[in-house]
Specification:
7-stranded parallel beta sheet; 7 helices
Length: 246
């Protein structure tokens, strides 16, 4: 019987790369997505043919509690358990600080913080009962190192997610490991279309001289899900290529 991973935001970017990485390691996958119906529907048969694993695509708007509960129900109905939860989905707004409204903050917090909390609350007790589980939250270097008034609610939500990681690790010890990955600049659709001078300026501040590929983040997530990471718990791991400076 294959282990089961539930990945949110899994139809593109880092989440999609994680689907491919975990499928290569013979995990069955709950592919949770809000946008990208076509991509999600194409991944399932491809992974079945390539890796002989089952991929269950589930459309879920993570700002809605009903959708989150239905996502977990569909996963449990299909597989009976979830061994690894990856909270990857996020909303990333960019607007003038003085123009932001409380409803803007609320919309971001619902997806970036409330959804990981509720998914953890729904899934982790079963992991603890089975005496094995991995929860991997995806934060950002924006939570700990870089700050932008234009993305204030995003950075704040990711800082809170780091705190949630540590409190969840404490709550579900000793059998459920809860860790957090803080990616730096990643070459995804989110960053496409940036001016060349901005890209060059960012690259100069990274020891590696380039953005990460989504697959490089996915491999860290796969390691944290493995038995080799048994003694890593409540940790915050920067995967930023050695980013130096604001």
């Amino acid at each position: 019987m294959n282990p089961v991973v539930l990945i949110t935001g899994a139809s593109r970017g880092i989440g999609r790369a994680e689907v491919y990485e975990f499928a290569s390691k013979e995990y069955d996958i709950v592919l949770a997505y809000d946008t990208g119906d076509e991509a999600a529907s194409q991944i399932a048969p491809y992974m079945k043919q390539k890796n002989n694993v089952t991929v269950l695509p589930v459309h879920a708007d993570l700002s809605r509690e009903e959708d989150i509960r239905n996502l977990v129900k569909e996963a449990m109905d299909q597989f009976g358990r979830i061994d690894v939860l990856i909270n990857n989905a996020a909303v990333i707004p960019c607007s003038d600080f003085q123009e932001k409204k409380l409803q803007d903050w609320d919309a971001v917090m619902k997806v970036n913080l409330y959804a990981p909390f509720l998914l953890t609350q729904l899934i982790a007790p079963g992991m603890a009962q089975r005496k094995f589980g991995r929860i991997i939250n995806t934060a950002s270097m924006g939570a700990t190192l870089t700050y932008s008034a234009q993305t204030a609610e995003y950075d704040a939500s990711k800082a809170a997610l780091i705190n949630l990681t540590k409190t969840s690790a404490l709550q579900y010890k000793p059998y459920v490991n809860v860790n957090c990955i803080c990616p730096g600049w990643v070459d995804t659709q989110t960053g496409s279309g940036l001016p060349d001078e901005l890209i060059a300026g960012r690259a100069e501040k990274i020891c590696k001289g380039r953005p990460a590929q989504p697959e490089e983040i996915a491999r860290v997530a796969a390691f944290l899900a493995s038995k080799d990471a048994e003694y890593i718990d409540g940790a915050v791991i920067d995967v930023d290529g050695g980013y130096k400076g604001l």
